[in-house]
Amino acid sequence: MLRNDSSFINIAISKNMINKKSISIIQNQVELQQVIDYCKTKHIIAVDTETTGLNFLTDKMTMFQIGDMDRQFVIYTNKVNITDLDVILEDTTITKILHNAKFDYKFIKAATGIEITNIYDTFLAERIINCGKTDFSCSLANTLKRYFNIVLEKEVRTSFIHNSGVAFTDKQIEYGAKDVEYLIQIKDSQLPLINKYNLNQIIELENRAVKIFAEIEYEGILLDKDTWSKIAIKNKLKVKEQLLELDDEVLAHPKLKDKYKHAVQFDMFTDVKDLRRTGINWDSPLQVLGLFKNLVPKLENVNGKELLKFKRHELIHNYIKFKETSKLSSTYGEKFYKYISEDNKVHTNFSQILDTGRVSSSGPNMQQIPSDNIYRNCFIPPKGWVFVSSDYSSQELNVIAYGSQDPVWLKALKQGQDLHSVCAELVYKQIWYDAAESNCAYAITKSKCKCPNHKSLRTNVKQINFGLAYGMGANKLAETLSISKKEAEQLIEDYFTAFPNIQSFLSKLGIFGTNNGYITTFKPFRRRRWFTTWYPKIWTNKGSEFSSIERASKNSPIQGSSADMTKLALIYIYEEIQNNNLPVKIVMTVHDQIDTICTKEYAKEWQMRMTELMEKAANIIIPNGLLKADTHISPTWEK
Question: Where is the domain boundary, 498, 517, 550?
Answer without folding.
Answer: 498
